[in-house]
Design goal:
58 residues, 2 helices, rod-shaped
């Protein structure tokens, strides 16, 4: 994921057409949202895991 985000940081983006810059910005926003969702999912999984560790079957 980080590699994909880094690939979007293209030097000389000023030479891109306005539509290409818009596409690049859109792709970057989508990747950022996906990354945030994945992080939130990992945190949720971690919290659920720690909740079940404290429970015992009596």
């Amino acid at each position: 994921m980080r590699n994909a985000i880094e690939c979007l940081r293209i030097e000389g983006t000023g030479r891109l057409s306005p539509s290409d810059r818009a596409r690049l910005a859109s792709a970057s926003a989508v990747l950022k949202e996906i990354s945030e969702d994945l992080k939130a999912g990992q945190q949720q999984d971690s919290e659920e895991s720690s909740d079940t560790e404290g429970q015992r079957d009596d």
